[in-house]
Prior knowledge:
Blueprint: E1 9-13, E2 18-19, H1 20-32, E3 36-40, E4 49-56, E5 67-75, E6 90-93, H2 98-102, H3 106-117, E7 121-125, H4 129-134, E8 142-143, H5 150-155, E9 159-160, E10 169-172, E11 175-178, H6 184-194, E12 198-200, E13 205-209, E14 214-215, H7 216-228, E15 232-236, E16 245-252, E17 260-268, E18 283-286, H8 291-295, H9 299-310, E19 315-318, H10 322-327, E20 335-336, H11 343-348, E21 352-353, E22 363-365, E23 368-371, H12 377-388, E24 391-393
Parallel strand pairs: 1-3, 1-6, 2-4, 6-7, 7-11, 8-9, 13-15, 13-18, 14-16, 18-19, 19-23, 20-21
Antiparallel strand pairs: 4-5, 10-11, 12-24, 16-17, 22-23
Helix pairs in contact: 1-7, 1-12, 6-7, 7-12
Amino acid sequence: xxxxxxxxKVLLLCGDYMDNYEAMVPFQALQAYGMAVxxxxxxxxxxxxxxTTVGDSGAYHGYQTYTEKPGHNFSLNxxxxxxxxxxxxxxxxxxxxxxxxLAMNESVLNxxxxxxxxxxxxxxxxxxxxxxxxxxLLKGRKCTAYHALGPVLIDAGAHWIxxxxxxxxVSDGNLITGVIYKAHPGYIQxxxxxxxxxxxxxxxxxxxxxxxxxxxxxxxxxxxxLQALGCHVxxxxxKKEAGDFCPTAVHDFEGDQTYTEKPGHNFxxxxxxxxxxAWSYDALVVPGGRSPEYLALDETGIALVRKFMQSKKPVAxxxxxxxxxxxxxVLKGRKCTAYxAVKLNVVLGGATWLEPDxxxxxxxxxxxxxxxxxxxxxxxxxxxMALLGIRVSF
Length: 394
């Protein structure tokens, strides 16, 4: 991670059908920055999982509210009944549907009250503030949330800040609130700074090479993690323009011989591919998923990868992304890992294969960072940060 020994310890309060982004992005981003993060759920123990939902804008379909689809199975790494709340520096509460029933759990409310009574940081996003309202912690406090929560939070005595955009966040003393996952860059940055973190070296421009049905986490987690550090991050896709979107795929490991796939979010691109000034960027990130299969046939994408590798600028590629690197002929004599099924591409591409054991292990070889799958994001992002000279210190 960014620091050898975690300087801060964060508790992530989970529940079944929490939003997948609102759980995984802060969970992995804060680890990448050098923090220890424990994910717990009442009634569950370490090694169990919580089901998540993919909440996305219904506007794409003409709906009046967001859509909800099945997401990943989020693995817990600590047991709720065994954790000592006093050992943590912050409590982070994802949104989704989980807060609706967690707000009726007295042990959850006592947890939130302990953090509040001790003056420790509490960060809640989307529907997460419902728990704080039920615990009686919002009286006179400024907060925001998903806009539909306005009436109940006002009734709870909160000083409601109506969100103007889905990226809005509010900070009031030891309380940080955000509207939805789109607010993560500002929301996570506020968490880092509230915990005394100082970010240096983040004046970087980073480019993501995207495609339809890239893996959901493998684009969103590094994208928002780097934005939260203050980097300028752009996402592009061949034959698409700024404002277009790429549908993503939710890949999970559920006991089958290979990963499962479910529909993910519609990921909005931030820049147009045509006329792109690639030289203005300091690093290239290549997500995995199914998109690399066909992006490996796109000559413009191949040329883009070659430019970055030949210039010795950092390139970070994960999962199936290495299919593009192999097709570009830039792996000869390099050491790298990938999703195990992509080993053939890597070896035939002339690289020395590095076994991803465990699956979250990532490697850096000169300017190249590679990982096997989204569980490796904390190492993946941290190693890219190191190449870019970005540091979070406490």
